Amino acid sequence: MEHHHAESWNIDHAIDTYQIDRWGDEFFSIGENGHIMVHPCPGKDIAWDLVEIVNQGLAQDLTPPVLIRLPGIIRARVQQLYAAFAAGREKYGYRGKYTLVFPIKVNQHQEVLDAVYASGVSVGSAVGMEAGSKAEMMAAICKADNHTPVFCNGFKDDTYIELAVRAFQLGRNVTIIIEKPHEIQMVAQCVKRLGVCPRLGVRVKLAARVSGHWQSSAGSNSKFGLSTSQLLEGIDQLRALGLIHRLELMHFHPGSQINNVRHIKASIIEATRIYGDLYKQGIPLNTIDVGGGLAVDYTGNRNTEPSSMNYTLQEYANDVVYYMQQVCNQMGVPHPDIVSESGRAVAAHHGVLVVPVLGAVQTNRQDSLTLTPEEEKIPPLFELQGNLVELNEDNVLEVYHDGQQAVEMALQLFANGHMTLDQRVKAERMFFVLCQRVRGRLEELEFIPKELQELSQNLAETYYANFSLFQSLPDNWAIDQLFPLMPIHRLLEKPTSQGTLGDITCDSDGCIVNFVGPNGKRKTLPLHPMQKDEPYWLGIFLVGAYQEVLGDYHNLLGRLHVLTVDADANDRMMVFTRRGTVVSEALELVNHTPEDVMRGVRSMIHSAVSDKRVSTVEAQSSSRFFQRLATEYTYLTDDLDAPSEVVLTRAVEERVNGTFANPRVGALDFVQDAETNGDVEEFVAIDG
Ligand SMILES: Cc1ncc(COP(=O)(O)O)c(C=O)c1O
Fold this sequence. Notes:
Among the domains are: about 95-340, TIM Barrel (Alpha-Beta Barrel), CATH 3.20.20; about 375-455, Methane Monooxygenase Hydroxylase, Chain G, domain 1, CATH 1.20.58; about 585-685, no CATH class. Helix content is about 45%, strand content about 15%. The chain contains 25 helices and 23 strands. The strands form four sheets. Strands 4, 13, 14, 15, 16, 17, 20, 21, 22 and 23 form a ten-stranded mixed beta sheet that branches. It has an eight-stranded parallel beta barrel with strand order 5-6-7-8-9-10-11-12, surrounded by five helices. A three-stranded antiparallel beta sheet has the order 1-2-3. Strand 6 (about 130), helix 6 and strand 7 (about 150) form a beta-alpha-beta unit. The chain is globular, with a radius of gyration of 31 Å.
């Protein structure tokens, strides 16, 4: 619980509350104006206001929710990785070189691969790409040039292997990594047929196990890789097939988001021993690919919790280099080149989700506190009224307990027929107000007992935001992963509510109830009360790895609008836009073709006109509405009616004047319908 008084609230308190200095690295900060600032190119004096970026999207009619992509951050992360390995190699006198091979499954979007490819310029060597399927391989070889290392990984069929071999034949720098014993024969056949053989690698299963969500990616029962005995058999096979001279790389993958650096050390030592042994058998290995696993500190807490990590990028690089060097020196084998397939660590920071809050379920009702003379005779109501008056700094816990007892008594009396429903509700409301006042007093206490700490959580308001957890933040739903979340503006104002976040899917799982807190997870997030007619935008950060491609189309809520924001040659902001999924595209995903859908609409309108359910003017208005709807964003938008105002106004006038008499729906009904939908103001405005 933060102890900040409204009058003394300042940016430092906001930093404290949301810990942006811990998870934001040098990429995000809070500006003087209380908005989040983005620093897309560390080392350069560039700071962009996130609110301004969202407004740039709005200016192009791309209303939030939007995904903001910052390719500069990808380039910066790649540079940091290379710099860390360069420092580690220098420190330990390591003679092999380092290359990043980006696993594109983490985020295959064009803009991401462009940024990864472009980062090669600043690190002075080609940055590679790793593919895990035919489609990914196509993307990788098309983005690559002939220097870019392209790794062919994952489950393979003959076509996938042929794709890799043909790309090699055409000049691409391809390595096929054998993950299963039967792939050796498949590769041999293809190589024989096409007459060329790319560089080969082999993935081994290590005995070293890691902890965390992805622990099954490693260890002897993991899905991928050759066991040590399969490895030796495979090597014999490659020898027999005359392909052993192409086996240059040994790969392992210890799992993703490895929180504890100790597990990385253990994997490196075991893998390098295997490498050294094979090298001494005369196999021309020259590279160890240490896979992924380099974690991201989503909470900034630097610990071994699942969404954090207890080491830095530099410590990771130092450890990889140091232990490889140690083992190689002991075994008397040359230092191999090092490849890492760091995906999350490269891509996570570059993606920011901005979601508009639609409203909050306001729980701070202060009404109905006065009791009627009759209610005053009912003990629990009378007692609750007394509790509200008595509460002070010295009796907080005691009065809270008294209130709990009174409300329990009220429920008993109601169950036994001695209180009416109205009276029970009044007791519940009074207790609720008491709880709120108790919570308001907590800041004055030196020590907050546990049950009062939990009170905050129980009183949290649900903020509803225009997004889908399933589409945009699947790992929060699936594996409880934490992502930093905070308002992107109003940070000079003390957030006086505690909230959780609900999305717009019809799914009770579609809510965020775990947030980044100073000691790990917190159950509620300090948020601001909504202000009438003012947007309230929340940023969800570090979403650039895995989330976009793991996301699904629950409720047919589709991909978000994307704003790719980068600096031009003069460090000015450039914004490229990509529209999100529209209704007809979402329907097509589940095989409702636009033709089918419009046929359905036409048929509905045709029958309504034939039955005289609607006038021609109304039918025309509906027809235009449905056509427009097909091209609308799948998320909530609020200006669907705008283009057909004239038509609608005419229709309303006809109804109100009675010039169009409909046997089934009267004019009055229509206006009432509009009223309940909150549309009536719009009609009046148009009329006027
Ligand atoms: C073979 C392989 N390489 C690399 C990665 C990327 O891992 P990370 O995102 O932890 O860097 C993965 C993902 O799990 C993987 O399976």
